[in-house]
UniProtKB/TrEMBL annotation:
Keywords: Membrane, Plasmid, Transmembrane, Transmembrane helix. The chain crosses the membrane at residues 9-30. It comes from the Bacteria. It comes from Lysinibacillus irui. This is Uncharacterized protein.
């Protein structure tokens, strides 16, 4: 009987030690991973500031601004106050960017202004004149999207990136190593 109790105590002690070791090892590995990630981000900022710009500004344009436009153009129910706040955030994001990225900043600013004007026009009474304004703004946004694409390509060329424009108009790129 004493032998069985000793075996259970030994197994519980071993299990306890394993759990504590796993927790400590996991915390150590998590700390090591954070250091590596931070060093990688610092290296990326030093070598390719355009990459950081693309990850923040162009990704915001692709993911948020275009999606908001699609929702507005398709007349989905949106909280206009929330969209006005997003427009303000996007303008602030562009305001803090360096002038060297104006080839892409300027067309994105025009796109944001188009959304702003579209919101204002869609809030007014729908007259024939208002519908013309809305159609014109829709055309402007599509044309502006092409300008953003051209600005993005120009930015990639200026930073010696290898890029390919795919059949579906997506652009894959890589900065030199």
């Amino acid at each position: 009987m004493k032998n069985i109790v000793n075996k259970k105590l030994f197994l519980r002690s071993g299990l306890f030690i394993l759990i504590i070791s796993a927790i400590g090892g996991g915390a150590y590995l998590a700390d090591q991973t954070n250091d590596i990630q931070e060093k990688h981000e610092v290296k990326l900022i030093e070598e390719y500031p355009a990459e950081i710009y693309i990850q923040s500004v162009y990704a915001t344009y692709s993911n948020e601004i275009v999606a908001t436009w699609n929702d507005l153009a398709n007349e989905k129910e949106l909280d206009t106050n929330e969209v006005f706040n997003k427009v303000k955030e996007w303008k602030e994001l562009l305001a803090i960017q360096a002038a060297e990225y104006d080839s892409l900043n300027v067309p994105i600013k025009l796109q944001i202004n188009t959304i702003d004007k579209f919101l204002a026009a869609s809030q007014e009474e729908q007259t024939t004149e208002q519908r013309k304004v809305i159609r014109r703004l829709s055309f402007d946004f599509v044309e502006g999207h092409n300008s953003v694409k051209e600005g993005f390509i120009k930015l990639l060329e200026e930073n010696d990136a290898d890029f390919t424009v795919n059949d579906d108009d997506t652009i894959t790129y890589q900065f030199p190593k």
